[in-house]
Amino acid sequence: MLAVASRTRYKSATTILSPAMPFLLTTATATSTTSPRPLFPSSPRRQNPTTPHLRPPPPARRLPGFPAAEPGAPFLPHPPRRGMASLAAAAAAAEVTHLTQRDAAEIDEHLMGPLGFIVDQLMELAGLSVAAAVAEVYKLSEEHTSVLIICGPGNNGGDGLVAARHLYHFAYRPSVCYPKRTPKPLYSGLVTQLESQSIPFIPAEDLPHDLSREFDIIVDAMFGFSFHGIPRPPFDDLIQRLVSLSVIRNSDKKPAIVSVDIPSGWHVEEGDVDGGGIKPDMLVSLTAPKLCAKKFTGPHHFLGGRFVPPPILSKYGLKLPPYPGTSMCVRIGKAPSVDISSLRENYISPELLESQVMPDPFDQFLRWFDEAVTAGLREPNAMALTTVNKEGKPSSRMVLLKGVDKQRFVWYTNYGSRKAHDLSENPNAALLFYWNEMNRQVRVEGSVEKLPEEESEKYFHSRPRGSQLGAIVSKQSTFIAGREVLQQVYKELEHKYSDGSLIPKPEYWGGYRLTPTLFEFWQGQQSRLHDRLQYSQREVDGSTAWHIERFSP
């Protein structure tokens, strides 16, 4: 359930961030609109409410759908994307340890012996890692929704069953082929869980001859690192079916093959010995890559199974890439080159209708801002600020919104910066808020003026002392010889004010306020038929009123 702060919004209230609940909006009790109170968190660590998954019911469908939205109902976002975080982690992983079959088996024994793990825990984390890696690369879309998970009789098959459950909750449409079921309570329980979700189990003999016609992604969870010998029926035929998919030249029709830990049929250390094995597009190594992973030539290699404790790392001298944030998987090696022209997403959102929006654009903005904050988006107050100098040259940069009320948007900066110079020559600007996970953006245009000195002074002293010192140190947009120059001046100021005395606000630092003359609310939709509702001011009966118009996307 969404954790939200109960609140009442008065027409003249100003939005702030509650010091007690960082990044949850509350409202001021004052009735004056002359001085917007700042938006600032008391801690850099945000409290992200848990957002329920948006998932359609189990019947087959090609596109994930959103539940019908009531007028004014909040829009729940897609799960945050982690692509750049994974790439950053991969860059730090210059060397990665690859395990022999013997070491892999010993690590499992050690985990489930003196370190207290049970196979159920390891299987759950491994399967979640596989599902997370699939969702990382093959994002849910019209092209990637139907998934076939082929499970073997051992632990690798169990990992596949767990992955199927998580993929279902990620809104994919999984099917499972599980020819040789293991009659142990753990595996029987996993099967029961999938059956309760109406996930179909397809016998091997009933699979379509051409798997590419029915499935967008195929997860190979047949055999793991402990397998040796020659695959027996029906797995020998299933492996050959996956091998035959590699000859499909049209990438638009070829399903992606994802192998769990070891491509089935490969030698755990020597890899695809005769060259006639599965050629997976993705390999999700578990615990640590096995030696055969060095022979993997597909575009996507991930590490999963975020459960390796320090004693294992130390005993086996493992070098593994760090997992980014709360992710259950991390990319190994470089990401494949991408055709930029092919990067696109088919947005799926509730319609944005004139009958549903607020008549006042400030109220509509605060509604969307509340929803972005409540959904736990990172820095929902980040906005692109565009200014234009007297020569007509534009410049843009990201700044943080620090206050908003029924009249204006407020931010703070250095008065010697380029944006400040632009505004001194041309006091007009545009703001852009982009909430990617919610398929939303808001444009605001208007005139800009400096805040009164006392308002800037008050906000300056509400900032952390480190930020106050940083504002003094940085002569924004001026040349410096190196980062060490900033660090040296900062240390000197830190020592100077180490007694806790008041840090004076520099004269070259303060706030601006933009008074809007135009708002545009944008909601991404399928086939690029986006919603664009624009608020502009009109003269009506001698007074100014907001007028709403729909624009073509």
TrEMBL record:
Q: Where is the composition biased (Low complexity)?
A: 30-53, 62-75
Which pathway or pathways does this protein act in? Cofactor metabolism; pyridoxal 5'-phosphate salvage; pyridoxal 5'-phosphate from pyridoxamine 5'-phosphate: step 1/1; Cofactor metabolism; pyridoxal 5'-phosphate salvage; pyridoxal 5'-phosphate from pyridoxine 5'-phosphate: step 1/1
Enumerate the residues binding (6S)-NADPHX: 155-159, 224-230, 261
Has the keyword 4Fe-4S been applied to this entry? Answer: no
Region feature Disordered, mapped onto this chain: 30-80
Q: Which cofactor does it need?
A: FMN; K(+)
Paste the cofactor note.
Binds 1 potassium ion per subunit.
Question: What does the entry give for GO biological process?
Answer: pyridoxine biosynthetic process
Binding residues for K(+): 156, 220, 264
What EC number(s) would the UniProt record show? 5.1.99.6
For whether the record's keyword set contains Chaperone, the answer is no
The family database entries (InterPro entries) matched by this protein are listed as:
Pyridox_Oxase (IPR000659), Pyridox_Oxase_CS (IPR019740), Pyridox_Oxase_N (IPR011576), Pyridoxamine_oxidase_dimer_C (IPR019576), Split_barrel_FMN-bd (IPR012349), YjeF_N_dom (IPR004443), YjeF_N_dom_sf (IPR036652)
Reactions this protein catalyses = (6R)-NADPHX = (6S)-NADPHX; (6R)-NADHX = (6S)-NADHX
| Residue intervals of the YjeF N-terminal domain | 104-320
Q: Which UniProt keywords apply?
A: Flavoprotein, FMN, Isomerase, Metal-binding, NAD, Nucleotide-binding, Oxidoreductase, Potassium, Pyridoxine biosynthesis
A GO MF annotation of the entry reads:
metal ion binding
How it assembles, according to the record, is: Homodimer.
Alphabetical list of NCBIfam families matching this protein: pdxH (TIGR00558), PRK05679.1 (NF004231), yjeF_nterm (TIGR00197)
Q: What does this protein do?
A: Catalyzes the epimerization of the S- and R-forms of NAD(P)HX, a damaged form of NAD(P)H that is a result of enzymatic or heat-dependent hydration. This is a prerequisite for the S-specific NAD(P)H-hydrate dehydratase to allow the repair of both epimers of NAD(P)HX.
What the record says about family reads: Belongs to the NnrE/AIBP family.
**Can you name this protein?**
NAD(P)H-hydrate epimerase
Native organism: Panicum virgatum
